[in-house]
Amino acid sequence: MSVVVANPSASDDYFRFFGLNHQFNIDLAALDQAYLAIQKEVHPDRHARGSDTEQRLAMQMATLANTAFQTLKNPIQRGLYLCQLHGVDARLETNTAMPAAFLMKQMEWRESLEEREDDLAALELLAEEVDNSKRETLAEIAQAVDGAKNYERAAELLRGLLFIDKFALELDDAISALV
Fold first, then answer.
1. Taking a C-beta distance cutoff of 8 angstroms, is the pair 89, 83 a contact?
2. What is the pLDDT of residues 35-72, one digit of tens each?
3. Do 65 and 38 touch, CB atoms closer than 8 A?
């Protein structure tokens, strides 16, 4: 029994691996479907009676499918991956420079969280504002990648989205503590 994968030569490109176009806005249902089809083919249990080489290859392909799926399913990871594919390093560890307006908004949110940490209604309103900001940023990333093919701009927006996501988690924790 040989290991069959949709496109094994595409293992260096997660989009090709799943038969998807290189774009930020992807069809998540198509990603799920492609992932399940590949997992069904390469699941190690299916190759338990194969040679050691077939078993090892099945395990490697299953691992690759998991990694590729997790990367493409998460919008931030997908965006960073697209930037990487197009030669743009987001420099997450070293480039923390953000536009002044963005930093001011972050400071406002933090102050609101601190001032209203016991006010569930106020925190829920803040969560809605943060969620709207996240949606707007995701739309801007989609435009930068899918529309303008401006991966430098996408990387900048993705760095901002990481800040928004981190704050959203802190805000969720604060809300959960009150519920």
1. yes
2. 999 999 888 778 778 888 888 888 889 899 999 999 99
3. yes
CA distances from 106 to 135, 138, 167, 179 (A): 16, 17, 8, 24
The DSSP secondary structure of 45-73, one letter per residue, reads GGGTTS-HHHHHHHHHHHHHHHHHHHHHH
Tell me the HSE value of 20 on the side-chain side, using a 13 A CA sphere.
Answer: 26
Please name the residue that has the structure tokens 């969560």.
127
The one-character DSSP state at 118 is: T
Read off the pTM.
Answer: 0.85
Strand residues in the chain grouped as ranges (E): none
| pLDDT tens profile 64-84 | 999 999 999 999 999 999 999
pLDDT in tens, 2-43: 434 444 455 689 999 999 999 999 999 999 999 999 999 888
Do the Cβ atoms of 42 and 55 come closer than 8 Å? no
Predicted local confidence at residue 130, as pLDDT:
97
Tokens 């590729």 sit at which residue?
68
Side-chain half-sphere CA neighbours of 73 within 13 A? 12
Distance CA 93, CA 34 (A): 33
